[in-house]
Amino acid sequence: MKPSPARLLNILVPVKRAVDYAVKIRVNPQQTGIDTNVKHSMNPFDEIAVEEAVRLREKHKDAVKSIRAVTIGPPKSVETLRTALALGADSAVHVQVPEAAPSPEPLAVAKTLKALIEKHNAEASKDGPIDLVILGKQAIDDDMGVTGQHLAGLLGWSQATFASKLEVDVGKNEALVVREIDGGGEEVRCKLPLVVTTDLRLNEPRYASLPNIMKAKKKPVQTLSPSDLGVDYTPQLETLKVTEPPKRVGGGKVANVDELIAKLKEAGIEAA
């Protein structure tokens, strides 16, 4: 009989409900943001994070104790959590905000995740503490790309961003991560607890099967408010105006170099 590992791994996977990647983005009439009355789905980078957590459990069956998904958003965001549960998460936490409330800024999200982790770790007994957070490197709606870094800084944990490969050695209490960098990959070895942000080449997410979608409806989802966690979502940034980029102007053809130079001069571009 294979002995159980000395410790059990509890994984937290933050996910976000975002405008579906296939939707053509349009600015709302008030020019205060984009039109959100369109199809939404889980942020693609977060899908990769959920998939990686599930793969870790499949690889280390005796070592991964639990996978918990968490989202911050209006009541409709529970659909995103159900997707994560159907993909393999065991339970979920919904930090619910009003429908019309703006999305919390990355620092506020990181403070929320920190509070959730500390709350879990204070209450954890047989389950053990959360010691691995896997989340998307960025959300495709605001493209901030800093939540993971904020969280690692607030917790004082190791961090490995833009991961294209993740290997966890629970016995040694460490992880080997290959990071996407300009021109190649950087290999880093990190001690747990750890925050990992996922890049596109880490994996290809699976589709949720119908039986798993049905099972997800019975998995527990805890609902909290920001005040339950002592977090203030008052925006620190102000959006003055949102406009669409200028329409692209069609190009033209020239017969020779002289004509090209003449066209450039007409456009006010002088040769160096």
Automatic annotation (TrEMBL):
| UniProt cross-references to SMART domains, sorted A to Z | ETF
Q: What is its main location?
A: mitochondrion
Provide the cofactor list for this protein: AMP; FAD
**GO CC annotation:** mitochondrial matrix
Q: Does the keyword Transport apply?
A: yes
Cofactor binding summary note: Binds 1 AMP per subunit.
Keyword line = Electron transport, Mitochondrion, Transport
Protein's cellular compartments: Mitochondrion matrix
Alphabetical list of PROSITE patterns matching this protein: ETF_BETA
Entry's transmembrane regions: none
Ranges where the Electron transfer flavoprotein alpha/beta-subunit N-terminal domain occurs: 32-233
**GO biological process, alphabetically ordered:** amino acid catabolic process; fatty acid beta-oxidation using acyl-CoA dehydrogenase
Citing just one GO molecular function, the answer is: electron transfer activity
At the top level, the lineage of the source is Eukaryota
Summarizing the function annotation, the protein's role is: The electron transfer flavoprotein serves as a specific electron acceptor for several dehydrogenases, including five acyl-CoA dehydrogenases, glutaryl-CoA and sarcosine dehydrogenase. It transfers the electrons to the main mitochondrial respiratory chain via ETF-ubiquinone oxidoreductase (ETF dehydrogenase).
PANTHER family recorded: ELECTRON TRANSFER FLAVOPROTEIN BETA-SUBUNIT, ELECTRON TRANSFER FLAVOPROTEIN SUBUNIT BETA
Assembly with partners or alone: Heterodimer of an alpha and a beta subunit.
**Family the entry assigns:** Belongs to the ETF beta-subunit/FixA family.
What protein does this entry describe? Answer: Probable electron transfer flavoprotein subunit beta
Q: Which organism is it from?
A: Cyclocybe aegerita
